[in-house]
Each structure stands twice: as structure tokens, then as C-alpha cells.
Amino acid sequence: MQAGKHKQPTLAATFACSTPYDEANPKVARLNSLLVDLVCKEGLSFRLLESDAFKAFIQELDPRYRLPTHQALSATFLPDKYEKVKGDIKASLSESVSQSVTTDMWTTSNNVAYMGVTAHWLDGSFGVHNKCLAVKPATADLISSELTDVLKDWSIVQKDLHVITDSGANVKKAVSLMPGVI
Fold first, then answer.
1. Rounded Cα distance, 135 and 51, in Å
2. Where residue 180 falls among pLDDT bands split at 50, 70, 90?
3. Cβ contacts of 68-71, under 8 Å, gap ≥ 24
């Protein structure tokens, strides 16, 4: 081969580089997982998957990978990831000796009240963990039942549970009415 001349790819090599991956290919699962992480961690719109510029970028990176639709992302990939992460957090929580939660209430400018609940625990190696378990609309008269629902959903036992609240009288009162909470 002469210097400066490039060998042309064969037809078979060109075909192999452009044939989409089979959906069962582990690389597709890995790329889809990375895509979910990207969208979630960076707070990106699901519509990114419909962007011609993003499609061109992905095509250049790996022409064999076909982007899922934003509907598949929201209906399948995100719920699957949520259930996996939730299972991992619940497993870690169940291995801890004790947990505590913090809760905070706030009201939006259009007068909708929200409650945030974060769990805190140590693992067997004394590693510190903090995870937001819920951010949900809350009504003042149902704070204790809504907090109890979050705790049940995450398999956190109320017995001897430490709950730290903001200084709101309604939240303090609601927590004081919860059995077993310290």
C-alpha cells in the first residue's frame, strides 16, 4: 500500500458497521442504561431523544445503536430504573440497625404544599447514606398519614424512628401523633 493511501472498507465491513444491534445485545442494554442515567442526572427533557442534533451525535458515536423513543424511556426504562434503585435502597436500609428521617414542608407560589422526606442511615461499615425518598403534595391535616405511607412504602419501621422536622407547628404536631416515633 502506498503512503498516504487508505484501504477502502469492504462491503461486508461496511454492512457490519451499520447493521443495528439486536435488542438482546448486552451493549443495547448498557447504552440504554447510560441514557437513562444521563437524562435523570442532568435533568434533561425526554424530547432530547427526538432532537435531530442528538440523533446525529449518537449516530456518529455508534451507528449501530438505535435510540429508544421518548415514550419507551418514560414508560419502560425510567420505571425499571426506579424499581432497581428503590430495591437497592430498601436492601441497604434493611441491613442498617437504625434509620432516621428528615422532613420538610414548603408551599409553592401558587399555594400548593409539598413534603420532602429524606432517610439517613449507616451501613455495616459505618458508611453514611442519605437518600430522598419522596417529594409529594401534602395537606396539613394529613401530614402524619402521608409520612406514614412513605415510611411503609420504603419498609422503614416507625418503632424508635428518629424524625427531624422543620420548625412548622403542623409538622411537629403530626410527627408527635405517630406511634413509635422519637
1. 30
2. confident
3. 68/32, 68/35, 70/46
Domain boundaries, the chain: 11-89, 96-176
By 3-state DSSP, what share of the chain in percent is helix, strand and coil, each rounded to 5? 50, 20, 35
- Of the candidates 106, 48, 107, the one whose C-alpha atom is nearest the C-alpha of residue 73 is 48
Distance CA 170, CA 176 (A): 10
At 90-109, the pLDDT tens digits run 999 999 988 999 999 999 99
- CA 169-172-176 angle, 5° bins: 135
**Concatenated DSSP letters of 103-117:** EEEEE-TTS-EEEEE
In which element (H, E) is residue 89 found? helix 78-95
Q: Please give the span between the terminal C-alpha atoms of the chain, in angstroms, as a whole number.
A: 80
pTM for this predicted structure: 0.77
Q: Which helix (H) or strand (E) holds 53?
A: helix 52-61
